[in-house]
Structure formats: C-alpha cells, structure tokens
Task: inverse folding
C-alpha cells in the first residue's frame, strides 16, 4: 500500500464549507491551505506511528490502540470522543467523535459525517508490518486504506481549528473498527446508520482512485453480497452417466448453473464472481467457507457439488433482478440433480449515483479550481469495491474518495 504524500491534503474536506464563486479563496481558506502545507511533516510522522501499530481487524487490542491515537488528536480540537464496544459482534469497536457548534442553532451549517476505518487487512501475523518512507512516497500496512484517510481528516480539522473555521462546525467523525471484515451487520453498522440519519452530508475518506493518471471522485459504490449453490444428485457407477436412471450427476449440474450465470446475467455495472468450487462423491465447505473438501473417483458419478461467489450491483433493483435470474436458473436442474441457491443476509448495500451526490462532486471541483488543482471526473463504480458509506447512502448525500 503506497501513499503519495501530497501537500494539499484538505482539498476534499473544503467542499463542505464556503467555496468562492470566483477563483479567489477567502482568507480563512487561504489560512487552512497554509496550515495543512506547514504541518505536512507532522501529519506524515503521525501517519507513520499509526501504520506501525498493527490494527488487523481481528487484532482487537491493536484496533483500540489506533483509536486511542486518533482520540489524542481530536479531543484537543474540541471533539467529544467515545468508543462503541463491539464485543457482541466479535469485533473490537468503533470510535465516534462529535464537534458541536459553538454558535446558536440558527447559525449552524450542514451536519457533516466523516467516515473512515481503524482496521486493516494485515493481521498481527502478517509479514507486512512497518511504515517505510521513500522521499515523496510512504508504504506500509494500511497506509492508504485507511490510515491515510484518517490522517487527511485530522490534518483538515487541525487546519480548520487554527483558522477559526471549526468553531461553528457540526461534525461527526465515525471510524469503524471492522470495515475490512465486518461482524454481523445488524449490530456492527447499527450506530453508523443512526449517524447517517442525522447528517446532511457524508464524506468517506477511503483512498482516492486514479483512472488514466487522473484523480477521480466516487459518487457511487456497488454492493457486496455473497451467494452459494449446493447441488445434490444420484451417485453411481460412471458407466451409467446421462442415462435416465443415473442422470447427469452433481458436477455437470453445477457447471450448467455457473455457465448459465455467465450467459444470462450480464448487465451494466453488475458483476458476479465464482470464487470457490468443488464436487465429487462428497463435497463440503470448511474453514469458515473459504475452503472446499471433496472426495471422488473418475468412475463414480458425483453426488455433491458446491460453489461460492459474490455479487456486486449498483442498486437494490439490480440486486433483485440478478438474484431472481439466479434462482430461476438453479430451479431448472438436469435429470437426477437438485440445486439450492442461498444468498447471504449480511452484505454491503449499494450507494447508487444520485443528482445530489453529483452536485457534491461539482462543488468539490469548484474548490479544486479555486486551489488551482485539476478537476476530478466521476469514477465508474465498477473500478472500486464496497465501502461503509453505502450504509448511510439511503439517508444522506455523499461522496467517497
């Protein structure tokens, strides 16, 4: 994970505040830019300390330790910080920091929700553990995803505080501790969803994506759901394969289903991957459904087969269409076989592209123009994965990256 160390760290954050109509920055905005630039070395050093603390999702103590480091940055800025324990979801927890406006209620602006995550994909036993800086680049576990995003949040808030623009801001920072491997979503995302309902704008500070060397903004993120197909069939000697009495066996039936998915499901922004497959006289998923164990011989008709994969879509309606087609395909078995398709209940919802999200990107590009930075195009959501902002997307306008 390589993070490029750019001087204008707070550009994305500025979109939620006053943006001049002409290419002329207001004095507080000029001050924020100067402060971010002046504090770059401090920000990079802070990031390096965070990266050196392992916070793999299942390293609960490590996730909490990174949360404590972030707390130490936000509390001096006037944020009230709390830790939401997630033992009930078999995860570490989430950090939530809230800044309440100092002015009267009528003077407050938009309620902002800033989203990031404390955990990384690199667990405590990973060989990739340390921050390394090479000139204008830094590399380390989670440097970009998402400790770099958290560093941007802190850098921007520090600049606002020093410039006097934080005083009347209504901002909640929500850093999940299990974005890379979420616990049961009804528990693990309950509090994030609640924060989304009270916010006016949500900004997700996961890494920026470049396409063709150009920085891009994300107004949409696709869903992430998992499915499983279990097939059973009559087993017997291979000499009888395809006969009315013996049938086609489980592996041929699973192959028919998977190939029908390939031929009949495709539509724009929809993908459906087969990640694991096995079959034989017996076949079963093991090890948390990430391994398959199968037995069989070449002269025995397969009696069991199983496949597991994911489904990613841009809208709830697209998910429903794809699942309906998959169920219909599985319901037309070859002779002697029976298939069942299961869709896991815990998945990441889609963040559909909306006019309001695109308006946020347009506002960000106005800030970019004022700062002399290139405008950002709209990233095709097929080019990145799911994210926590999707859990609030039905309730609040948002922008990711």
Result:
């Amino acid at each position: 994970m390589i993070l490029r160390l750019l001087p204008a760290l707070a550009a994305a954050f500025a979109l939620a505040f006053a943006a001049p109509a002409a290419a002329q920055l207001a004095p507080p905005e000029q001050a924020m830019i100067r402060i971010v630039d002046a504090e770059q070395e401090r920000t990079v050093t802070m990031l390096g300390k965070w990266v050196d603390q392992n916070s793999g999702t299942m390293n609960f103590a490590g996730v909490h330790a990174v949360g404590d480091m972030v707390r130490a940055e936000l509390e001096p800025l006037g944020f009230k910080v709390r830790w939401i324990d997630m033992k009930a979801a078999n995860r570490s927890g989430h950090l939530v920091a809230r800044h309440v406006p100092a002015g009267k209620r009528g003077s407050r602006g938009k309620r902002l929700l800033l989203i990031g995550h404390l955990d990384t994909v690199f667990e405590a036993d990973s060989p990739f553990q340390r921050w390394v800086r090479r000139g204008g680049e830094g590399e380390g576990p989670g440097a970009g995803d998402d400790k770099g995003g958290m560093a941007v949040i802190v850098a921007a808030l520090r600049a606002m505080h020093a410039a006097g623009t934080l005083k009347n801001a209504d901002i909640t920072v929500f850093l999940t501790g299990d974005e890379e491997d979420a616990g049961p979503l009804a528990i693990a995302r309950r509090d994030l969803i609640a924060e989304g309902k009270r916010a006016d704008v949500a900004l997700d500070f996961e890494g920026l994506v470049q396409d063709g060397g150009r920085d891009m903004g994300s107004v949409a993120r696709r869903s992430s759901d998992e499915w499983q197909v279990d097939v059973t069939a009559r087993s017997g000697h291979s000499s009888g394969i395809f006969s009315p009495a013996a049938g086609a066996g489980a592996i041929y039936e699973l192959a028919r289903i998977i190939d029908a998915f390939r031929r009949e499901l495709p539509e724009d922004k929809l993908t459906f991957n087969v990640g694991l497959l096995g079959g034989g006289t017996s076949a079963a998923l093991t090890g948390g459904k990430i391994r398959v164990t199968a037995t069989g011989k070449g002269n025995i008709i397969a009696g069991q087969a199983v496949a597991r994969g994911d489904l990613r879509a841009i809208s709830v309606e697209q998910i429903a269409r794809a699942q309906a087609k998959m169920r219909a395909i599985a319901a037309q078995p070859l002779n002697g076989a029976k298939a069942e398709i299961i869709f896991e209940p815990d998945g990441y919802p889609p963040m559909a592209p909306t006019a309001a999200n695109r308006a946020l990107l347009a506002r960000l590009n106005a800030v970019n123009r004022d700062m002399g930075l290139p405008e950002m195009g709209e990233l095709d959501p097929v080019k990145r994965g799911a994210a926590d902002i999707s859990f609030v997307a039905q309730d609040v306008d948002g922008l990711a990256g």
The radius of gyration is 25 Å. Residues 5-22 have pLDDT under 50 and may be disordered.
